[in-house]
Amino acid sequence: MTDRLITHLRHVDLAVPDLARQQDFFTNSWGLRTEHGEPGLSFLAAEGSPEQYVVRLRQSGDKRVDLVAFGAASAADVDALAARLGTDGVTLVTEPGTLQTPGGGYGFRFFDNEGRTVEVSADVAVRAHRRIEEGEPVPVRLSHVVLNSADPEGTRAFYERHLGFALSDTLTHPRMGDMMWFMRINRWHHSVAIARGPHPSLHHLSFELRGLDEYMRGTGKLLRAGVEKIWGPGRHLAGNNTFSYFLDPHGNTVEYTTELEEIDEDTWHPHVYDFTRPEVSDQWGTANAMNEFVASRSFNDVDKGLFVAPPV
Fold first, then answer.
1. For the purposes of burial, counting CB atoms within 10 Å of the CB of 135, is it exposed (0-12), middle (13-18) or buried (19 or more)?
2. Which residues have a Cβ under 8 Å from the Cβ of 177 and sit 6 or more positions away?
3. Of 210, 258, 261, whose CA–CA distance to 233 is shortest?
4. What is the percentage of the chain residues whose pLDDT exceeds 90?
5. How far apart are CA 30 and CA 140, in angstroms?
6. Is the pTM of this model over 0.90?
7. Quick one: average pLDDT of 138-159?
8. Which domains does the chain carry?
9. Extended strands (E) in the chain
């Protein structure tokens, strides 16, 4: 593992054919807030997060992941990481410089091993945010992103070697082998997870709610609104977090969660969990069974943005 220059997950940017419909879902159903906007772009914030936005939406003919963005502690760390990646032969999309997105800052972009565009930035202005109140079923922050990979071992190695991620836990199957790797960049059990899939794509985005009551209220709110639920509510063993998975209007999986585990990195030893054991998928036993149908909904469409940087 390389020295850690990344501090946290900032935002994930999606391109969608129907921007208005996607924005309506994320604001009126999911509970995000439109913080900034311009023609063809919408920047959505989580009420409890200091990040300028946690999701950016872009109108496009192609559905794709535009960007996965991480924070760094300083401009010097941004420069050091860019130099290190360049030396290691990683393709830089942009050189370090001033960002033109809300909150400004200093950052750069590069392609990961499978062609996803990744951004690392520092000195982004802190957004005025608020404490989420008891019983309020809206996201506090973006919790984590899970990526489908056709080369998960290679993707895990890339994020460990180049970005300083560490393995927290692994899910395995007695016949299919290792299937998901939970990767951390700070004390949170995972900010990124890598899932073995048929092609590179978004597996899911996860949003943290205030607590168990707010998580259940949010889950119920979406069910009453007729949003399609894929899996949950339940509680995973790896990460010890709750889960309720839904489909957004473009077929992306999005999750409400809470109580993701914070670990002592000095003493943590990764586990290997057999997810055919029911308690690994759901400690509570309240969720619908994990089966091939449920799993296939998170394979998603082939990402059309691989090795093609977003236009903005």
1. exposed
2. none
3. 258
4. 97
5. 12
6. yes
7. 98
8. 6-122 (3.10.180.10), 141-297 (3.10.180.10)
9. 6-16, 33-38, 41-45, 55-59, 64-72, 92-98, 106-111, 117-122, 141-149, 166-173, 177-184, 192-196, 201-208, 229-235, 242-247, 253-257, 271-274
